[in-house]
Amino acid sequence: MGRIVLISNRGPNDFVWQEDRWIPKPASGGLVSMIDPLALRPDVAWFCCVSEPPGASEARASLFTTAADQTDPEHHIVPVPLPARVYQAYYGAISNEVLWMLQHHLVGQFGYSSLDAARHCAWSEGYLEANRRMVAAVRASGIRPRAFLIQDYHFYPLPALLRQAFPDTPILHYTHIPFPGPATLKLIPQHWRDAILVGMLGADVIGLQTLWDARSFLGSCEELLGAEVDYKNRTVLAADGRVVRVRVFPASTDPAAVQQTMHSPGVLSARQRLAPFLDKLTVVRVDRLDPSKNQVIGFKAFGRLLEMRPELRGRLRFLAFLVPSRTDLSVYRDYRAAVYAAIREVNITYAQECGFDPVEVFYTNDREQALVAMERCDALLVNSREDGMNLVVKEWAVVSNRPGVAILSETCGVASEIGAEALMISPLDIEGTARALAQAIAMSNEERWARLAGIRAKVHSWTAAHWLSAQLDALSEVSSGPAVVNINGRAPAGCGAREPVQPCRPKPVPAAGRSGRPSIRAVI
């Protein structure tokens, strides 16, 4: 039957070149946690990119050894080495500095403001080259793919390239971040946006976070490509005559796994460390230090709250858990400086009257510590400029027991699911955000519990397992012949199995059952 092939920029392990050798480190992030249950199946191979510094190019064999012998043998990981110059152009100069910013509407301040010759070179010799190398890696691996699941904006051209190499294999491309409409895509050159849209239409199924994203994609195909679009059924007629399905799969979390984490030693230790900071009314935010997360406006709104509500000074504290992100990019370093300047302004103004710094920053990637803060906060502030979904809100809903109140940007994907139970704000509205914070702090326990119960029920009704199963179902529906059977561990449509099957963590397969060694390799 072949393997289900996962493709993403990052895999379950990062491979770092240190002291003349490859060091594997567990990767973190929402994408990894959501697709890992599928990746643990023995019939799945996971292709990911590895940045290869110049000094490592002669030691590719050691990457093979590292991947085969020093990572979880339950995974079939296929690291694809990219020369450092290619990786930096593909991942840094285009994926993060252009596409990420464009799709979060951050063109201008803290985003790219122009596309010069160097950026055009990065597109052709970095972004497109990385996608071409991924196809070559899949072909060179010898793996016979049963289906492709391609993840995110790093690989927009990839479905069309894979279609040429594997014309009969079902392909799904999923975008985790907001998808822009045609007016926004016109801010990049025509041949770039054509490569993006035509590349995505190489898939059989295009997965997006929200209906708004689906409408934006359909509108872009219609206006920019002149494609025939069916808005009611959410399909696009590709140039080769295929009907491409556009589907909505909202990302989610695993409530049972989150609850299990709350009983871990790391959480117990974090409760002790944070106890002195949780003895007052508490506002919490948990997000990467990224311009799209809009922390500057959030801190200014908190300062405005203390200005208009003097009685809260000394009674209220803002705990900010800021996760370091893309620190090698100058735009992120500049944004970090702006965030810390906003924090200093609030603390300098109100620290003496409060008796402590009203804004306390934890600049680290410590998930257990952040979960403890979310468990005990009075208000969770998520004022992102734009988010594909925002899983922090869903994890907060699982663990909150004070209970807290969610204050949420209307532009977050999760707002389409839980907007009625949260306090909704415009991400650029400092005054409105301050008033929402005041409303949350003053809200009765009865209303708090009612709002939280509504959000929690929605999170439990659509989990990460449902998100993954729905995509596998969609792939199964477009398959033909024997390949339909058991793509997702269930019978094909029409055979009576209608409820989504939650992907399960398989029992470990002994090494002897895999030709005596873990089925993990690097493509050279």
Output the CATH class name of the largest domain.
Alpha Beta
Q: Outline, from the CA principal axes?
A: globular
- The amount of helix comes to 40-55%
Structural class, from helix and strand content?
Answer: alpha/beta
CATH topology name of the largest domain: Rossmann fold
Number of domains: 2
Gyration radius over CA: 23 Å
Low-confidence stretches: 481-524
CATH architecture of the largest domain: 3-Layer(aba) Sandwich
Report the total helices.
18
Share in β-strands: 15-25%
The biggest beta sheet, please?
A: 9 strands, mixed
**Span between N and C termini?**
25 Å
Q: At the fourth CATH level, what is the homologous superfamily of the largest domain?
A: Glycogen Phosphorylase B
The total strand number stands at: 17
Strand order of the largest sheet: 5-4-1-6-7-8-11-10-9
What number is the mean pLDDT? Answer: 88
3D structure, described in words:
- This protein has helices at 30-39, 60-69, 84-103, 117-141, 158-165, 182-185, 190-200, 211-225, 255-261, 265-274, 295-308, 330-354, 367-376, 391-399, 415-418, 430-442, 445-461, 464-478; strands at residues 3-7, 13-18, 21-26, 44-52, 77-83, 145-151, 171-174, 205-208, 228-230, 235-237, 243-248, 281-288, 316-323, 359-363, 379-382, 405-409, 423-425.
- It contains 18 helices and 17 strands.
- The radius of gyration is 23 Å and the shape is globular.
- Strands 5-4-1-6-7-8-11-10-9 form a 9-stranded mixed β-sheet, with helices on both faces.
- By secondary structure, it is an alpha/beta fold.
- It folds into 2 domains: 3-251 and 465-487, Rossmann fold (3-Layer(aba) Sandwich), CATH 3.40.50.2000; 255-460, 3-Layer(aba) Sandwich (Rossmann fold), CATH 3.40.50.
